[in-house]
Automatic annotation (TrEMBL):
Name assigned to this protein: Fructose-1,6-bisphosphate aldolase
Cited PANTHER family: D-TAGATOSE-1,6-BISPHOSPHATE ALDOLASE (PTHR30304), D-TAGATOSE-1,6-BISPHOSPHATE ALDOLASE SUBUNIT GATY-RELATED (PTHR30304:SF0)
Signal peptide positions on this chain: none
Enzyme Commission code: 4.1.2.13
Positions contributing to Zn(2+) 1 binding: 83, 197, 231
GO biological process: glycolytic process
Annotated metabolic or biological route of this protein: Carbohydrate degradation; glycolysis; D-glyceraldehyde 3-phosphate and glycerone phosphate from D-glucose: step 4/4
Positions of dihydroxyacetone phosphate binding: 198, 232-234, 274-277
Xref: Pfam families: F_bP_aldolase (PF01116)
Length: 328
């Protein structure tokens, strides 16, 4: 059944687990996520980005998610809109039947320009008023995703600050987070701790200087009842980078957020963990390998089935590691 994010995250907080929120763009991702959730008895958050809406069209995404609910009626599902850039964008998703929206007021309507605190409070509060009147949950964001080493957001297209950010924007301030939650009544808060979107998060495995799990602990200590959200939380599996590069890809050395660090965050209030890049890497690796090993195959179902299996196994691993398994 389709449920609100608030309901799902409240359960996760009560029982001390986290939920991966996987981005969805196509049938294969949707199937992989649901088959993994079914195999592990996990609740599901699927999210549609602006890029996904542009690729598949909002009605197709909506019906993909509704089809998942129909085929797996025993699994609770949150239909979430990722990174809305204005209250109007959130309003359209609410009208389409999304049960949760993200109002990302940390960036302007262009999805690139960092905003000030008052702007963020204003747009987020407006989105919350509208959404709550419809029984829909809202995730806000305070701080800007980006590398603590370089100050860059990392994402070339899509959502991400343009230009260099300063330290103050890169690590969410616990006091400001408390004031923000109080002023906006968001159901969940995305925080900045040194992660960024995409595959190029860290040039070497992250340390406490480049990925601040410590900051999560400080924020959680200040606002223990707020559900925290980690964006840019793909782990960038080295095994998949190897497969991609072995079969003709060229992805330079790069590292993501280690699963153990996310698990540590979950012990300190992180309830929603956004993952997109890992599914992209797994499906690209699976397609490259299959086509290289089966050069005479031309039925897309053959190689797309490989992507479903690859993504499903990755989702199962995250459901198990985050303690989501067994909570559907
Ligand atoms: O917010 C970032 C997600 O990875 C979505 O990316 O806009 O390319 O779908 P996208
Ligand atoms: P990744 O690029 O690390 O998968 O993050 C996705 C995300 O935060 C979507 O909002
Ligand atoms: Na941001
Ligand atoms: Zn994000």
């Amino acid at each position: 059944a389709l449920i609100s994010m608030r309901q799902m995250l409240d359960h996760a907080a009560e029982y001390g687990y986290g939920i991966p929120a996987f981005n969805v763009n196509n049938l294969e991702q949707m199937r992989a996520i649901m088959e993994a959730a079914d195999a592990t008895d996990s609740p599901v958050i699927v999210q549609a980005s602006a890029g996904a809406r542009k690729y598949a069209g909002a009605p197709f995404l909506r019906h993909l998610i509704l089809a998942a609910v129909e085929e797996f009626p025993h699994i609770p599902v949150v239909m979430h809109q990722d990174h809305g850039t204005s209250p109007a964008v959130c309003q359209r998703s609410i009208q389409l039947g999304f049960s949760s929206v993200m109002m990302d007021g940390s960036l302007g309507e262009d999805g690139k320009t960092p905003t000030d605190y008052d702007y963020n409070v204003n747009v987020t509060r407006r989105a919350v008023e509208m959404a709550h009147a419809c029984g829909v949950s809202v995730e806000g964001e305070l701080g800007c995703l980006g590398s603590l080493e370089t100050g860059m957001a990392g994402e070339e297209d899509g959502i991400g600050a343009e230009g260099k950010l300063d330290m103050e924007q890169l690590l969410t301030d616990p006091e400001e987070a408390a004031a923000f939650v109080k002023a906006t009544h968001v159901d969940a808060l995305a925080i900045a701790i040194g992660t960024s979107h995409g595959a190029y998060k860290f040039t070497k495995p992250p340390t406490g200087d480049t990925l601040s799990i410590q900051r999560i602990k400080e924020i959680h200590a200040r606002i223990p009842d707020t559900h925290l959200v980690m964006h840019g939380s793909s782990s960038v599996p080295q095994e998949w980078l190897e497969v991609i590069n072995q079969y003709g890809g060229e992805i330079p050395e790069t590292y993501g957020v280690p699963v153990e660090e996310i698990v540590e965050g979950i012990k300190h209030g992180v309830r929603k963990v956004n993952i997109d890049t890992d599914l992209r890497l797994a499906s690209t690796g699976a397609v490259r390998r299959f086509l290289a090993e089966n050069p005479s195959e031309f039925d897309p179902r053959k190689f797309l089935k490989e992507t479903v299996t690859a993504m499903r196994d990755l989702c199962i691993a995250r459901y198990e590691a985050f303690g989501t398994a067994g909570n559907a």
